[in-house]
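Cross-posting from the chemistry board since nobody answered there.

I work mostly on the small-molecule side, so proteins are not my area. We synthesized pyridoxal-5'-phosphate and want a rough idea of how it might sit in this target. Sequence and SMILES are below. Is it possible to get a predicted 3D structure of the two together?
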Amino acid sequence: MLVFEKSRPGRGCSMLPACDVEIVLPKEKDKRELALHMPELSENELSRHYTELAKKSHGVNDGFYPLGSCTMKYNPKINEDMAALPGFTEVHPLQPAHTVQGCMEVMKETEEYLCEITGMDHMTFQPAAGAHGEFTGLLLIKAYHESRGDKKRTKIIVPDSAHGTNPASAVMAGYSVVSIPSGEDGCVDLEKLRAVAGDDIAGLMLTNPNTVGLFDKNILEITNIVHGCGGLCYYDGANLNAVMGTVRPGDMGFDVIHLNLHKTFSTPHGGGGPGSGPVGCKECLTEFLPSVLVEGEETLSFVKSEHSIGEMKSFYGNFLVVVRALTYLKTLGREGIPKASQNAVLNANYMMNKLKDLYTMAYDEVCMHEFVMSLSDLKKKTGVSAMDIAKGLLDNGIHPPTMYFPLIVDEALMVEPTETESRETLDEAIQVFRNLYEMAEKEAESLHAAPVTTPVTRLDEVGAARHPVLRYQFS
Ligand SMILES: Cc1ncc(COP(=O)(O)O)c(C=O)c1O
């Protein structure tokens, strides 16, 4: 039942203090014509409503969540305690800078740590998510070429294994996309890259490890080729959980990057945010950044350069995500950060090796923090698809891996166990995967019907996409 259906007129739980400022009513022309629908429930009913909803969904606190490319790691609760401190929550973005120096220090310190981890020189925390960071980074690349009077660079190279947001961001930034196919090994095909690298290329967007979970061994050559034709290299840092503290995008030859703080640096995400996609860059791009934090003699202040691309979001981005990230960085420290990545890689390889005698791996190589399997053979043999196995996992209390992505792998399931899962959890999940495989061979029909234990069973996904109901209709 929806919260509006539970609502009863006059039943409320308003705990707002009495208004202590003059009430200014809107002008007649600005008044709304229809009544505002606000649900009216007692605190008790409201609390039960959200608890009921929470029980219907699956989060990191409920169980294993190996959603590839999403890094659903456990987020330590101390991050929440820090983000809830009144000194952070009870400030207003329009307060004079000298009254919020503590918050600015949080951003400066986080910037310094993240620049050290990534090999960048400066960073902005304005972008609200990874895709927003990509768009910001591409505008920096554009501003760089334009500042040199180089107008002929109209294309961005994007490998076909890229996350869909990469080409979308490139188009939004006004570029056309040159897609290059991956080689048999799942990595960038150097010959194909050389063939498109010309004086019309503004840059390349790449994630490393890439979306099939492999670290591109030719990375230095790739960035050299792009620089050789005058382009810049953009690092999609959504997969940094595999390499943080071990290798740096700046040392791989990248000029500009985004990070997904909400993934790698531990903030609960999914369901729409809040996220944070800070963009870091090398010195050559710094003058184009949105306002940057500058350290004066005694105070920190934001300064906008005359060549800045302008602000990408109001004020400072999702500041409390930065507080969580800093807490995480300080908790793990210099030794803990690379260790977290190494354990993420170890867990992924452990699972992959325990499954590869049954499931076909898209690339049978040492993987990084995630691996991709193709259920193409299983589907041909039994009719059971990647979707069926994913739905079967739900009946076993496991969130499905990412399905049908990357697009270059047929019937793909992309598994990212993360470093925060124990050996026992991995063993249980491995057993579930193996049981489902056996079930596919013996009783495919029951997998086509899965899930049967969840609040909603198999959904009509085509119907939902074609005829979405996005708004509650009040009678
Ligand atoms: C490789 C990669 N790049 C970019 C993004 C976009 O990040 P966001 O969802 O924060 O916009 C994602 C998100 O899943 C991703 O996996």
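Reply from a structural biologist on the board:
Welcome over. Reading the output above for you: The domain at 335-465 is CATH 3.90.1150.10 (Aspartate Aminotransferase, domain 1). The chain is about 40% helix and 10% strand. Happy to explain the token format if needed.
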